[in-house]
């Protein structure tokens, strides 16, 4: 319906331009929205307010000219001016019921469109280092990324979901060496485990799997492994005035790097056994965890596969004059593209940096022909945006093709207290633990119920409560309630959807008009949520729809001696059920038939 009104307004703009009231080059950036107050009509446009300056008229004066020249729209009963210059449109009575026909025809496809059909979008999300199980912060990125992808698919875009596997960096070397040290411990050797190593019990499990396969094949003397390794950090017994640990001596970074170098030298090719065992075990765990969470990917892209692409990217930057050498390092001139400082891409020892891999990875993405690339990163990566966009522009591509969405951290609360977490120490709440405690549905829903850049305080007690305050329960209960109602109606032969449509005119209550309008607004919500990367718009819509339904159901008898009214109300309820199901599906949440 809004399309018909927009077309009528566009036609009116052309008429006013022909009359010389509006400039011929005026750009129409007005919006048409559904009204919140039904007394103000069904739709409202701000076009007269937006165009008033260009026309040299007061908004209400221009609105009068719009109404005078507005073509007839069969579904509109009237249009009137409101407030400072809004134009409000009222649908005729029959048009209010058109949504019932639309839902009956489209069923589970209702709400989907082709507005983004020209888009081929790659969305990369989660991409956590495969050094431990996914924690609750990763879970938010997973839920958010999957839902954004679902929304773009629902609006016609071709979407590819990708996980970037950081399998070639220093963190993987720390994990591999941590695994080797645990391997030595399990073989009876005594050592002081590094403070900067991975502490979790899962590292011991990986080490044990290597023992089960290869026994003591890779045992070396601990003294050789620790030979000439810089001292590990030593902390004072008491923290400083700010509560921070006081370093007395040593360096934890140099200590672990020394252990990595010795392990690689002593084990030779055997080092890859520990590296791959750790990578495979944790990556398999991540894949299983995400699959159980309803999050899947078209591609798991290996950082280790980028060797040639790194050379290609750096050669491209070199040929275009954006690299220089200083102090033995190779630098990228990122400041020429607005970054705060230039960035090293190759160190004096010949090793390329993480940033060089990022450049190569984005070059690879750009060469795959996507119309748009979406990266979903943790909020702590905010500083990387400018440098990555700088590299894209420097290589001759358009950085506007890249959108970076930042996902804020998640705090878990139970019993009014926040749960403390630390990934390196291994003391953190995993995504799997959260899912087992509150269920996939609550996790998927609450993860996307705020803008991605806003912090989430995840209340575990609320997420499992069966109350109106628990939004996901309240929405699912509306769906189950309607299922139970329809099951009863079908059992008693009280409901025939095809026949019920002719009685829709019996839906005359304000609450019924509100429900019909809410159902009709659903397709617009999906488009807005997709284009704004805001799944919470869908969640908020479903909360409002469920609240309208529960209020209507509690205040009015659906089953009565009036057959026509019963049929009409059952039809309305059935359509609410369908839209709730469609919306929950996009959010990755189930729509139970019984609760």
Automatic annotation (TrEMBL):
Signal peptide: none annotated. Residues 475-595 form the DALR anticodon binding domain. Its main location: cytoplasm. The keyword RNA-binding does not apply. It is found in: Cytoplasm. Residues 3-91 form the Arginyl tRNA synthetase N-terminal domain. A motif ('HIGH' region) lies at residues 128-138. GO terms for cellular component: cytoplasm. GO terms for biological process: arginyl-tRNA aminoacylation. Pfam families: Arg_tRNA_synt_N, DALR_1, tRNA-synt_1d. Its EC number is 6.1.1.19. InterPro entries: Arg-tRNA-ligase, Arg-tRNA-synth_N, Arg-tRNA-synth_N_sf, ArgRS_core, DALR_anticod-bd, Rossmann-like_a/b/a_fold, tRNAsynth_Ia_anticodon-bd. GO terms for molecular function: arginine-tRNA ligase activity; ATP binding. It catalyses: tRNA(Arg) + L-arginine + ATP = L-arginyl-tRNA(Arg) + AMP + diphosphate. Keywords: Aminoacyl-tRNA synthetase, ATP-binding, Cytoplasm, Ligase, Nucleotide-binding, Protein biosynthesis. Belongs to the class-I aminoacyl-tRNA synthetase family. NCBIfam families: argS (TIGR00456). PANTHER family: ARGININE--TRNA LIGASE, CYTOPLASMIC, ARGINYL-TRNA SYNTHETASE. Monomer. This is Arginine--tRNA ligase. The gene is argS.
